[in-house]
């Protein structure tokens, strides 16, 4: 699976009483689907996954998969503290035709999370997972940083295709890229070098005669629909892919070999994040650096310091539904809202 470009770390909206607001998930996912992002990450840290019950996580995955455009890569956060629970949710995501499973490091029993325990955990998950696995190391939340030697060893597993590295340490990103450069893999891509997703392949395809109207009377009351053009694919060498989670280091990370970013700041402002990546790919480093410099103060304050309540309020300012976080995360004060309004003024969609 090709994991290149920008992936918003999408939030989970709630009613004021704390119930999941599924209709607003539909609204947000539909809007993201109309942007040039590569895909979306559901039930990551920004999605408050640890605040949800198992039934809620499954319903969030289901609603998202139903609404997302078929060409967008869907990454499901399925990590739990045990192999068994991780695989249960991963198998459900596979049934919904998600493309990848994002599996965070188990960390509650931190003193016992030695390299051999993490190797056993991820190898067992990857051996049994019906989806390709992305390692997820997020030290700001887990207080556990997956060691480079463990990452390098796990990257050799054929079903572990990438890592989301959220420490913001560009030197570590460079070290990961260098240590895994020898890994050679290929992925199916479209003719324009975009990812081929499971839902894209499952969508009705045109026949070889060129997408004529075809009868679906066996499925409905004699209606006819225009099928999608037949997808033409090719293979692309991708190796082990490194995605970063800190928007303020996006350009620097791309320059040392990262393939893209899973970004909390892309939840309210996917366009500026996409523009930095696009300018880098076009080798317009002056433009990329200018946009990166403009973004850095806002993402540091909104995402790194103020967190999910601030991300959600920034979404409200940009036409997405953010709403309130779930307790014990607290809503913002009036002063904090005013500060965010100023920080986000230059990134309105």
Based on Cα principal axes, name the global outline.
Answer: globular
- The strand count comes to 12
Mean pLDDT: 92
Order of strands in the sheet with most strands:
1-12-11-6-5-4-3-2
Radius of gyration: 20 Å
Q: What is the distance, rounded to the nearest whole angstrom, between the alpha carbons of the first and last residues?
A: 29 Å
Main β sheet profile: 8 strands, parallel
What class would the helix/strand composition place it in? alpha/beta
Helix and strand element order: EHEHEHEHEHHEHEHEEEEHEHHHH
- Fraction in beta strands: 15-25%
Low-confidence stretches: 206-225
Work out the helix count: 13
**Percent of residues in helical segments?**
40-55%
Any key phrases for this structure?
single chain; alpha/beta; 8-stranded parallel β-sheet; two-stranded antiparallel sheet; 40% helix; globular
Structure description:
This protein has an eight-stranded parallel sheet. The protein has a two-stranded antiparallel sheet with strand order 7-10. It is built from 13 helices and twelve strands. A hairpin with an 8-residue loop joins β8 and β9 (224-226). Helix content is 40%, strand content 15%. The chain is globular and about 50 Å long. The longest helix has 22 residues, at 285-306. It has 349 residues and is of the alpha/beta class. It has helices spanning 22-33, 54-67, 83-95, 115-128, 139-142, 148-154, 170-179, 198-202, 250-255, 270-281, 285-306, 308-317, 334-344; strands at residues 5-8, 39-42, 73-77, 100-104, 133-137, 160-165, 186-190, 213-215, 224-226, 233-237, 241-244, 260-263. The two termini are 29 Å apart.
